[in-house]
Structures are given as C-alpha cells and as structure tokens.
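> call design_seq(struct)
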C-alpha cells in the first residue's frame, strides 16, 4: 500500500471538516436522537442517485456491508448517549481520539498492514492531541462520567466499523458504490427505532422532523461526503493512517463547539491542537 500522499492528505482533511460539521449539527439541536436518526434516515435520498450512476458493489463486498450496517446501529445509539450527557468538545474528541489507536493495534493482524515507527508516532500524536482537547477543563460539562463511558464504548465501535469498511471498500473496488449502498441501508433501522420509541408523541415527532429536514439533509450530504472520502483514501493508503488522519476533525469540532455552541477553548486544547498537527506531519512523512 502506498504512503500518504499530499492529495490524499488534503482530501481526508476536507472530509474531517465535513464530519465535524454534521456532529456539531446534532449537538446544537434540542432532540439529539431524532436529529441523528433524521440525518442518517435521509441517507437513502443522497445515496440512491449515486447508485444510479455508479451501480451496486460486487457480491464480495456484501458481507462487509451487512456487518457494517449492524455495527453502525450501535454507533448511533452510543453517539446520542454521549452527546446527551456531555459537551461536543468532551465526547467527540475522546471517542474519535481513542479509535485510531485501536485500529492501529489491530491493523497488522486484521488487514496485514503493520505500521512503521514513524507512522506509530503520528498515530500516537494525533490520538494524544485529540484526547487532550477533549479532557481539557473547558470541555467538561453535563455528566462527564456517563459521557466518557458512552464515548469510550463508541471508540471501540468506530474502530470495528473502520476495519470492516476498510476491507469492504477494497473488496468493492469503488468507494462511491460501497458508501452509497451502506447509506441506503444503515440509517433506516435507527430511524425506525427512534420513531417507534416516540410513537406516543408521533405528532410532535413529525413536527420536529418537518422543521429540521432541510438542515438535516445538509448534514446527510456532509456525512456521506466525509465517509466516501475516508474510504476512498483507505484504498490509497494504509487504513490505520487514514483512520488517524480523519480524526483531525476534532480540531474543527472544537472550533465549532467554541464559536457556534459557546463551549470554552482553553490552553490545554491549544496544546492538543499543536500535538495533532505534529502527528499529521509525522503521518505524511512516514
């Protein structure tokens, strides 16, 4: 597998911005579970036109797609729990910062891609910087104990679906086809679950969705673009390196949390940011 080139680096950084944007959209809403369900339930609206042009992936990719759909359902449940109990600036960095370490630890055995010393240094720096941003005093709010438990559980889930989809997109041979198929199926079960739980207040649920669907559709497009870029990059560079680089989204999330959601930004976050930048450069030079 080729090293991390500048075009791949730039693409993943743009995908990281998209990823942080839709997460901030969820955190900024008053009904996080429903907004999450709506964003991903609308995935079929974005994905079906893509499939018309690129077609379905080959049968070799479908076992990975099926597994990913199941794992993503757990991801959404844990994501909403984390955001309900803690600030975006705490939960997002912890879940996203721990996951690359788990992917790197498993990549040699699962994917056959052991990392060099320089690549490990980059992964550790990015993950350490991301976690430092999340654990800064200015990030703590809500119920941090519960939020951290959800965030750490989601880190394991993120690592699992990253490995599944990294293998799946290589089997598919086309990132757009793989991601579009995934988005057709993986958002609808969670939307159905949330709607079933809200059946006693169905009118209020529909009213919320009617008022949020345009904004949610923008979040859907950002989520689709972000993941398509990441999986394409995993066909061009080692999965663990892309997984770590993608978590630079925490820098954008911290900025969005400070500017849009009025969350603080202290000196520990600044130090974590510097560490993440150093990690990105180490990954590029590995």
């Amino acid at each position: 597998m080729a090293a991390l080139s500048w075009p791949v680096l730039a693409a993943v950084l743009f995908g990281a911005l998209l990823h942080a944007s839709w997460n901030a959209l969820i955190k900024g809403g008053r009904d996080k579970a429903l907004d999450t369900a709506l964003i991903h339930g609308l995935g079929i609206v974005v994905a079906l036109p893509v499939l018309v042009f690129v077609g379905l992936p080959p049968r070799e990719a479908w076992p990975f797609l099926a597994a990913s759909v199941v794992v993503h359902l757990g991801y959404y449940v844990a994501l909403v729990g984390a955001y309900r109990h803690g600030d975006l600036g705490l939960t997002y960095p912890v879940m996203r910062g721990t996951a690359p370490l788990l992917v790197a630890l498993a990549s040699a055995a699962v994917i056959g891609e052991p990392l060099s010393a320089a690549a490990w240094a980059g992964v550790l720096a990015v993950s350490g910087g991301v976690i430092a941003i999340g654990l800064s005093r200015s990030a703590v709010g809500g119920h941090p104990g519960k939020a951290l438990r959800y965030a750490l559980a989601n880190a394991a889930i993120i690592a699992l679906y990253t490995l599944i989809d990294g293998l799946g997109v290589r089997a598919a041979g086309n990132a757009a086809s793989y991601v579009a198929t995934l988005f057709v199926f993986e958002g609808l079960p969670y939307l159905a679950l949330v709607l079933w739980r809200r059946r006693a207040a169905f009118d209020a649920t529909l009213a919320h969705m009617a008022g949020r669907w345009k904004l949610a559709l923008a979040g859907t497009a950002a989520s689709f673009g972000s993941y398509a870029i990441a999986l394409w990059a995993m066909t061009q560079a080692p999965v663990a390196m892309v997984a770590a680089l993608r978590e630079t989204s925490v820098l954008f999330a911290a900025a969005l949390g400070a500017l849009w959601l009025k969350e603080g930004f202290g000196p520990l976050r600044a130090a974590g940011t510097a560490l993440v930048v150093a990690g990105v450069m180490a990954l590029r030079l590995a």
